[in-house]
Amino acid sequence: MEERIMKLFPRLADITNSSLRGTVIEIWKETVEQSEFSLDDLEASIIPFTLLISELVENGIAQTTFVDHTNEVTEAAICLATSLNRSGAGIDMDNLIAAANLHDVGKLLEYSWKDGAVVQNQRGKMLRHPFLGAAVATKYDVPLDVLQAIFGHSKEMADEKRSLLCKVVNRADFFYFTAIKEYLVRV
Ligand SMILES: [Fe+2]
C-alpha cells in the first residue's frame, strides 16, 4: 500500500524527514480505510477533485481528478514557497509538501458513491473535508502548521490569522480551482 501511495503522489519522495513522510502515508492509509474509496479508485481516475464544477464529471469519468489536483496543488505550493524562501520566508519545505499533499485528504470522507457517481455525503455536508481531514491527522504526530493547513486551506479559517505555509497552500489550491473553473473546463 505504501508503494502505491508513493506512486500516486510522487512529491512525497521529496519529504526528507522519513518520519514525517511515513506519517503522511499512514494518514492516507487510515483515511482510505475509513472511506468508501479504494486505492484502485484513486488510481483509476474516477474521483473528481471537486463537486462544485459539474462539467468535470461526464459519464462517470472525472476529467480532472482528486489525485491530479492534489499533485498539481503540491507543485504550485512548492513553486510559491521556493520563491518566498528566496526572500527569506523560511518555509519548511518538508512541512509544505506534507501539507499540500494532505490538504484535501478529507474529501475521501466527504464524498461517497451513489448509483455509480461520486456525491457529497451527509457527513461532508455538515463538516466538510477540512475538518474531516484534520480529524484524522490529529491522531498522528503532525506538525501544527501542517495540521493548520489541512483545516485552514479553505474558507474555514478565512477570517483567522494563518501561517504563511497555510496561506501558500490556500493560494495554490484556489489558483488551481479558479483556473480550472474559469478557463480550463472541457465541455
Ligand atoms: Fe484542494
Q: Explain this structure to me?
A:
The chain is mainly α and 187 residues long. The strands form 2 sheets. Strands 1-2 form a two-stranded antiparallel ribbon. It is built from 9 helices and 4 strands. Strand 3 and strand 4 form a beta hairpin. It is globular. The protein has a domain of 118 residues. The site of fe (ii) ion (FE2) has 5 residues, from helix 4.
Low-confidence stretches: none
Number of β-strand runs: 4
Helicity level, as a percent range? 55-70%
Compressed to H and E, one letter per element, the order equals HHHEEHHHEEHHH
Counted by DSSP, the helix tally is: 9
Average per-residue pLDDT, rounded, comes to 92
Shape: globular
* Radius of gyration, taken over Cα atoms and rounded to an integer in Å: 16 Å
Bound molecules: fe (ii) ion
**How far apart are the termini?**
35 Å
Strand order of the largest sheet: 1-2
Main sheet record: 2 strands, antiparallel
What percentage of amino acids are in beta strands?
Answer: 5-15%
What would you call the structural class?
Answer: mainly alpha
